[in-house]
Amino acid sequence: MGVIEYDPFAIFTAPPSNETPEEKIERERREAEEKRVSDRIDEEIKAEKAALKKQKGVVKVLLLGQSESGKSTTLKNFRMKYARAAWKAERLSWRAVIQLNLIRSIITIVETLQAEMDNIPITPLSSSLQHHHHHRNPNHNYNQQNHHQHPSDPERPSMDSDFPESEAEVDSETDGAPIELAEKHRVLMRRLGPLRRVAADLKRRLGAGTEEVVAGSSGEGAGAWASREKEFVVRGWKNVLEGPFKGAKEGHGEQEDGDEATEVIASCKEDMQALWTDTTVREVLERRRLRLEDSAGFFLNDLDRIATRTYEPSDDDIVRARLRTLGVQEYKIQFEQNSSFLGNVGLGGDFGRDWILYDVGGSRTVRHAWVPYFEALNAIIFLAPISCFDERLREDPTVNRLEDSFLLWRAVCGSKILAKSTIILFLNKCDLLKKKLREGAQVKTYLPSYGERPNEPVAVVKYLKEKFKDILRQQSPEPRVSYFYATSVTVSFVLLLSFPALVGLR
Ligand SMILES: Nc1nc2c(ncn2[C@@H]2O[C@H](COP(=O)(O)OP(=O)(O)OP(=O)(O)O)[C@@H](O)[C@H]2O)c(=O)[nH]1
Ligand SMILES: [Mg+2]
To answer: In whole numbers, what is the pLDDT of the chain averaged over residues?
Structure first.
């Protein structure tokens, strides 16, 4: 297909074709709510944006990519290195976010144990929590129902052949009998009960606008399962500090040392540790295919350090903390005159000292908010998490996450407004890709066109890079400057120190 003439973003908001009437009502309610929040944010931003338009000599970069692709993490890396003072000033505010990330993992475990005890059927997960090479659940409801969706969907670009509509072949194993839990597990679960209230408090403290967003497929097995799909969301950490979402009631709550949340968390440290290190608990997580270690905002291996009364987040903690972005946030970065970064990218002197980075929310329901920011951009950094080849979107579990990235990439490359922008692609989460391949996940199961190529990181990255390049070539309205990098933005960001992509920015 040639240049996309229809609204390239329409496909990203299309509902799952197999939803039930109840799911439809629930989805529409959710979308209306998200839209309401998003509209309010749009309003707030409009004024700021009008002012910005007038600014000249500012380098404007937009971060794009699906949810959990690493956009905010990339931005954090920039700020950590080049906006050091602001970064330091914000350090303590991250504590609550990290505490909430930590408790969320514990609550997930407790709910999983409860589900095991109640013998609740194992339901498929759409998120990165899903066990990749253990899709053995015969109840994968969406596979069958979804069988004829793609070919009949006229708006769907013809990427279908790349991604199977069903992964039935890997779903054939059975799960075996439920695992027996002992009295000590029940005791632990009871004793960790207060963490629920702490989580609620933290969410409130992180902002009056904090919203819980439930994934697209409510499906059966909600209840105990629902919270696993929930994420808390504020516009971003900016609001945690200064924004309109700051809890009015709490005042300077988050600055206080020895606050109640910290107190309760510290007092639960041993129990949390006991839960996380218990072999039976690990077996249940395995059986229920929960990969907490690979999921966003995982801190259980740092309990010793974090669950204390004096905990102060490290740079690495902040980079790894997960806070979903809603709407569009902008950050000014002023490079110091002599920054090695500017020297490396040929932007020394006065020009290009001021950068504006726009960070957006990546979920399908909030992507419409991107379009107004497409004007007058110097560059786009597009994040495609390539470890996601075996995962599905939270907001639409019928869609493979890598496929979503390709569709999004295609639309961005094909957009006329963006025709003059430099495009920088980060093939991100290479560390997780390596880990998954080492553990035996087969790329060709999810991406049959991969064929008999070696199931190794270097070959996979090379293949995917070529695919992204092909799409860029086919879709770009005119030839453009583009750069491709394999990255792991939570692990290291050194790559950007010699960021040749930005040499050409004007
Ligand atoms: N292992 C690993 N984790 C990563 C990498 N990049 C990002 N993450 C983690 O993935 C999670 C999601 O990253 P974010 O930067 O919040 O994603 P986002 O694109 O801003 O997501 P939205 O705000 O929902 O659109 C975070 O917990 C990150 O720490 C990576 O390269 N490797
Ligand atoms: Mg984000």
So the answer is: 75
